[in-house]
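In response to the reviewer comment on reproducibility (Comment 2.3), we provide here a single inverse folding case reported in full, input and output, so that an independent group could reproduce the run without further information from us. The structure tokens appear first.
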């Protein structure tokens, strides 16, 4: 007898193709969400905090309205859905444009003007939305100068405060545009521990130690004789 030819199940290939989808779809979704979150956070970090708040609120409101419109109109065409989603992205697009061109350039009213000779050994730079140091040492009761070099693509400044609450300022430096540098004239400050930050991006911050020449910084142990 001749052997009957075996027939391959036509659904076998479809099952093999669909089997990884329950794994691929969640992983792919997580990757897309992570990329969108990182990109959006970079936009918010590269604009002043007031602008970042407006962009975040406008994006959230647009998202809620867009999804509500889509959910309440199940017969909406694909073209109309794409239009609604495009409108939802307007705040993000505007924020990206502001981050690229830079917002808040120039000297704010009431800030100390930059100028004067560079101080030897006191220099701070900014890049990738962070300072190159989180510790600044200044002489007590003596005016000095900090040379600030903005190597970033966003505006930055240096401001010194009494503490991390940033309520009482001791010095507010002028905003420095991307690629520029300046010399901040720091007034005489009493010995103690203080706090500094970029007012445009408060996540950029650190500690300021002010001590008289020859005296150990606060918190350091003295050498036994």
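Designed residues, in position order:
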């Amino acid at each position: 007898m001749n052997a009957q030819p075996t027939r391959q199940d036509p659904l076998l290939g479809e099952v093999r193709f669909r089997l990884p989808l329950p794994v691929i779809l969640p992983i792919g979704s997580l990757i897309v969400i992570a990329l969108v979150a990182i990109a959006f956070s970079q936009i918010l970090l590269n604009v002043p905090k007031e602008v970042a708040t407006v962009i975040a609120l406008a994006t959230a409101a647009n998202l809620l309205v867009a999804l509500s419109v889509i959910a309440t109109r199940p017969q909406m065409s694909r073209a109309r859905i794409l239009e609604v989603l495009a409108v939802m992205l307007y705040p993000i697009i505007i924020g990206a444009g502001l981050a690229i061109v830079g917002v808040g350039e120039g000297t704010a009213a009431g800030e100390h003007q930059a100028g004067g000779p560079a101080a030897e050994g006191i220099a701070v730079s900014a890049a990738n939305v962070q300072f190159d140091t989180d510790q600044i040492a200044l002489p007590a009761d003596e005016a000095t100068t900090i040379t600030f070099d903005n190597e970033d693509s966003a505006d930055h400044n240096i401001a010194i405060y009494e503490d991390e609450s940033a309520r009482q300022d001791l010095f507010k430096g002028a905003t420095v545009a991307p690629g520029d540098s300046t010399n901040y004239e720091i007034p005489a400050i009493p010995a103690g521990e203080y706090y500094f930050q970029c007012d445009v991006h408060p996540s950029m911050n650190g500690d300021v130690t002010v001590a008289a020449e020859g005296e150990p910084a606060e918190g350091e142990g003295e050498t036994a004789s």
